[in-house]
C-alpha cells in the first residue's frame, strides 16, 4: 500500500471472506473488514454504509473509492455528511456500458454512478481515451488522469533478442474468464495453421473448457496453462516469449499491458476498452481490428518477418519510462489526493 507513505494513518475498508468483523493494523495501515453477508458483491452497495461509523470513529479526512457503485455510494454520502473530499476511480469498462443506459438495469446503475460522480471532488481516469469516454457520458469536470504504473525496480529486465524462430512463442497474463477471450485465442491460433506455443498465466473457472479443447485437438504440446507463478518466473516466462498478447473482448486498461511494455515486449492487442489510450498501432504495439483468424495471423507474421517489431517494443519501453514509471505516477496520485477539496 504505497499510497500510505507519508500519511499518519491509512485505512482500508472492504468485505471479508466470512461473516465476521475484523480490524487489523500494521504500521500506519489499518484494515477494516465487514461481514460478506452473502456471496454476491452487490450487497456491498448497502453494507458499505458501515463506513460512516469508521469515518466518525477514526476522524478520516480524505476518501478514495475504487468503484462508483460498490462502496462509492456510501463514500459519496459520507463525503457530504462529514464534509470531506472524495476521489472516485474507474477500473473497468463495465461502467461505460452502464452509462449507455440501454436497459432498465443500466439506467438504474447509471443513476448510482451519477450520484457518486457528482459528489466526488475528483474522478480518476486511467488515460486520455477513458477521459474522452467520460466526457461523452457528460462528465467533464474534476477529471484527473492518473495512469496505471509499473515498478521498474521490479521489472528490471528487458527483452533484447527480437528474432522469432520457426515456432512462435506467445504469452498472456490474466484470469481464465470470459472477458479475456482465451478459448477463442487458442482456437484461432490452432486454425491459423502456424507453429506456435501459447502460455496462459492466471488460472480461473474456465480452465476445464480450455483443457477440453486442448485435449480434443491434440494441442498438449502447443498450449501451457499456469494457475500462478511468482514474480521472477513470470518475468522470465514473458521475456522468453516472442510476443505478449492481450486478446480480450472487454477491458478497462489492464496493468499487464503496461508491465509487458516495461519488459520491452512486442505486443499484440485487441481494440477494446481503453487500451488505445496507451497502445498506438504500429508505434508501441500492434492493434487488431477484429477477432478473425486472418487478422491474428497477419499480425504474428508481421512481427516475425519485420525488423520494425524491435522498434515498436523499444518505443513501448520508452513510453513506460516517460509516462508510467512507478515513482512518477505515485507522486501525481498522492498529490491529487492531498490537494482535493470537498465538492
From TrEMBL:
InterPro entries on file: Glyco_trans_1, Glycosyltransferase_grp1
All residue ranges annotated as the Glycosyl transferase family domain in the record: 164-308
Domain of life assignment: Bacteria
Gene3D superfamilies: Glycogen Phosphorylase B
GO MF annotations, alphabetized: glycosyltransferase activity
Any one Pfam family match given in the protein's UniProt record, by short name: Glycos_transf_1
SUPFAM superfamilies (UniProt xref): UDP-Glycosyltransferase/glycogen phosphorylase (SSF53756)
Name listed for the protein in its UniProt record: Glycosyl transferase family 1 domain-containing protein
